[in-house]
Design brief:
This protein has helices at 15-36, 42-56, 72-78, 93-103, 117-123, 143-156, 176-190, 196-209, 215-225, and strands at 5-8, 61-66, 83-90, 109-114, 128-134, 157-170, 213-214, 229-235, 242-248. It is globular. It contains nine helices and nine strands. Bound molecules: S-adenosylmethionine (SAM). S-adenosylmethionine binds at residues 17, 20-21, 24, 31, 35, 67-69, 73, 89-92, 95, 116-118, 134-136, 139. Pfam families: Methyltransf_25.
């Protein structure tokens, strides 16, 4: 089977989305250094997510990748799995050009959308089996914005579908300012692949755009959106920094007579 890929024209961007984009438009190569050195545990997360999906889906499934970047993470998750179709959305056109290269020889159809994931999920009318969002929900500033996206994601999944994400996570009762001060030293050692200039660019981005939530807050958003189960499935080693979460949509809806 020959893979087919296409770009879909831009969606409307929100002001918050434009802010988050400014770093990744200019500094995508710094982020790639971080990923390649496994400083954010992409390799561990890819094998974990691959195992979760293969346990759940023996038949071809549709995978939606929110804020997909260059698609390298998803490609490694999906390797060897029965993928019917991959769809990715990102604000960063450069990253999407790389994603087109990433998927060009894959044995499944792919579609890359340029635009804001919030707008995309809200207008999506083709439900998915699995939705993934890696290190990007935290660009939404408020709990209300994040909750609205969780609810839209729930609506965009088929019954029995899965949503998973990995996001910055703070201790219960910890302020954003305290989280940033506490995690800065460990982030500097995690990002050992970056020189001081690259680290300060990355840290400036994190300080301005990262809006972590507690474990309980991330899980509660899933519950409020309607997911049947919400659980933490991975925590980066060391003092709490980022964790991954899995949310399962009920297989069937029961209506009262
Ligand atoms: C930290 S990178 C993560 C990329 C990839 N998910 C990964 O785990 O390697 C953040 C990505 O989110 C994208 N992004 C941020 N806000 C977005 C939004 N509202 N809609 C779509 N993409 C967004 C950026 O362009 C960037 O590619």
């Amino acid at each position: 089977m020959t893979a087919q890929g296409k770009f879909v024209p831009s969606l409307r961007e929100t002001a918050g989305a434009r802010d988050a984009l400014s770093f990744f438009r200019n500094e995508w190569n710094i982020y790639q250094k971080i990923v390649q050195s496994n400083a954010m545990h992409h390799r561990d997360l890819a094998s974990l997510l691959g195992a979760v999906i293969s346990k759940r889906f023996a038949v071809p499934f549709h995978f939606f990748d929110l804020a997909c970047g260059d698609g390298v993470f998803a490609k490694s998750v999906l390797h060897g799995l029965p993928v019917a179709r991959y769809q990715g959305v990102d604000l960063n056109e450069n990253a999407l050009m790389q994603a087109a290269e990433t998927f060009k020889n894959c044995p499944y159809d792919f579609e890359l959308h340029h635009g804001d994931m919030v707008a995309w999920v809200n207008r999506n009318r083709t439900p998915a089996d699995v939705m993934w969002c890696g290190f990007s929900l935290h660009h939404l500033k408020t709990c209300g914005e994040k909750q609205a996206l969780f609810s839209a994601i729930y609506q965009s999944l088929k019954p029995g579908g899965l949503f998973a994400c990995v996001e910055p996570t703070c201790h219960a009762g910890e302020s954003r300012e305290h989280y940033l001060a506490r995690t800065r030293p460990q982030v500097r050692s995690r990002f050992a692949a970056l020189d001081d200039q690259e680290f300060s660019q990355m840290w400036a981005h994190i300080s301005e755009h990262d809006h972590p939530e507690t474990v309980q807050s991330w899980l509660s958003m899933g519950v409020r959106a309607g997911f049947e189960t919400s659980r933490e499935i991975y925590r980066m080693p060391g003092d709490l920094f980022c964790a991954a979460y899995l949310f399962e949509k009920p297989a069937r809806r029961f209506t009262q007579a």
